[in-house]
Amino acid sequence: MTDNENILLKKLENENMETLIKRGRGAELEQYCSWIGKSIHGTAREKACSLLSWYDSKTYRERLKKYENLKLKIDIKKGPHGKTVRGSISQYLGLKKIRPVILSKFNYKCSICGFEPEESERKKLHVHEIEEYDFDTSICELKGLVLICSSCHSFHHLYRTYSIATEAQMDELISHFTRVNGIESEDYHEYFRLLRYSWRNESMKSLDEMINRSVISDREEKVTFRISFDMPYKEEVIKLLKEKDLYVRN
Fold first, then answer.
1. CB-neighbour burial class of residue 224 (10 A; exposed 0-12, middle 13-18, buried 19+)
2. What DSSP state is assigned to residue 215?
3. What does pLDDT average to in each consecutive run of 10 residues of the chain (250 residues)?
4. What is the pLDDT of residue 204?
5. Backbone angles phi, psi at 42, to 5 degrees
6. CA angle at residue 46 from 43 to 47, to 5 degrees?
7. Conformational region of residue 107, where left means phi above 0, alpha means psi within -120 to 50, and beta covers everything else
8. Which of these, 52, 49, 40, 41, lies nearest to 15 by C-alpha position?
9. Taking a C-beta distance cutoff of 8 angstroms, is the pair 116, 138 a contact?
10. Three-state SS annotation for 10-25
């Protein structure tokens, strides 16, 4: 980094960045933006947002350490939606055989927030598939199954959640996230911003490419599966996948 960038990072270490955006500080922001090659045109808020974006991109690794021990974390599905083991086997096997085993294993409560609904409301508990997707081979590896509530589940597929939730629903979900983790809403928004830089900079594929490839894959690409843990009814699952030529050996 240049000397000006290092000076600017030191100046911003103790800044409240959200307040910086609200206050503006026009001439100062214009000078800062010029130091790092950002646009100095537009309103003070636009300049501050540009500066915040630069600051996040330079500091996200260290600042993400603050959120390492959150009970509920944010994630996105790194592969095409709809292409899952659960979606590739029969509903009877998934809902009537595997799901009851997972419900019992986790004592009919969310493994993250502890939500324990009445028996008639257990549809609010979801079996979440822990996956690892390889874009180069189009292999989706199923690595685990956990039981989580619908609210916690929303944060494991956050871009999809934002695409379908209303503003009021999203506000309630963010309140759930902050309650579970004992943090403020400002922390949630910072955490999400920093994760975006992590996904964009450290993934084998850029975030935009992952999203675009997922859209294409949903329509055209054949996805095959691998199962790397001892799941309930594993042999039956593998048999069904093999019948559809969708299973790859470990």
1. middle
2. H
3. 88 78 81 90 88 92 96 87 89 97 98 97 97 89 97 94 95 98 95 91 57 49 92 97 92
4. 46
5. 100, -175
6. 90
7. left
8. 52
9. no
10. HHHCCCCHHHHHHHCC
